[in-house]
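Project standup — Tuesday

K.O.: blocked on the structure for the chain from last sprint. Re-posting the sequence here as requested.
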Amino acid sequence: MGDQPETMRAVLLTGHGGYDQLSYRTDVPVPKPGPHDVLVRVEAAGVNNTDINTRIGWYSKGDGDPDDAGWGGSALELPRIQGADIAGHIVSVGANVDPGRAGERVLVEPCLRELHGETVQNFAYVGSECDGGFAEYAVVPARHAHSIKTDLSDVELASFPCSYSTAENMLTRARVTSSDRVLVTGASGGVGSATIQLARARGAEVIAVTSRSKAEGLRALGAMETIGRETRPTEILGHDAVDVVVDLVGGAHWPDLLDLMRPSGRYAVAGAIGGHTVPLDLRTLYLKDLSFFGCTGLEPEVFSNLVRIIETGAIRPLVAATYPLRDIVSAQRAFSEKSHTGKIVLDVAGSG
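H.V.: unblocked you, prediction finished:
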């Protein structure tokens, strides 16, 4: 694929804290792939909650210096290039990778089971345990760079990996089928809007919890009904009204979600933007035979299934806004305002 430059543009996370910890640089060395890796020229990279949570040390359960602030429960190696969503092209490969893969258009699976040629004990995450896509080039394990054939743009493709794989993983873990009625909280965000589309693709009926201003857009995505996020769901739907809850919020109304589920209901969670500490009445859990699924590491089949769904055109990308790489702070500010539906994406190749 020709000679690669020695340096690249990238955003470095230099520590935990505010936006001042993000440093846009033009002199970062281009990484070199290890024997089991590929070097990807990043065309576009999505912005996610995990980028902000990692920056502020939200994953740490300790006090003081966050020595457990990575996804894997250990300290982050700084400086770190964040960015879990990577769409791009393979430009070179490691010694143990088929050289024919050079030139492939790829979508990168962000949840890694392999890193530096070794199996990860639990899992690692792109942009946390290794450098990610907020740069012109990124090294990723070859097995996690999935070839994709589609007419979608790079920016559109970059809206998929983190949000849609998280959504598909929760639906897979909760065993959602066409006979299920599913409630989705935080439904207008990247994961929530992805869940609506992917649950509908399975034939399930979807109820979305969102703000009034975003309700019409979510119904257009496939939600059969919407509920205001300031409302307790049982006030609208009653008790024992849904089979599955896909929760991204937590927060004050969380106990209501358990009352909402039918006996033998399934609850899947992959976020807590409304508050991570909630009261649990164990009697509700065991008397209703509920099943709880905490969802971070992807089931082995999830990402390859997602790629196939994208290639069929059964789901569509939702890109709310694009920013050049150098405007990472503006992109994260816009993301944190939560006034958008879908994804905010950095157009890395078009950044100039």
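K.O.: great, moving the ticket to review. The chain has a mean pLDDT of 92. The chain has two domains: 7-159+317-346, 162-294.
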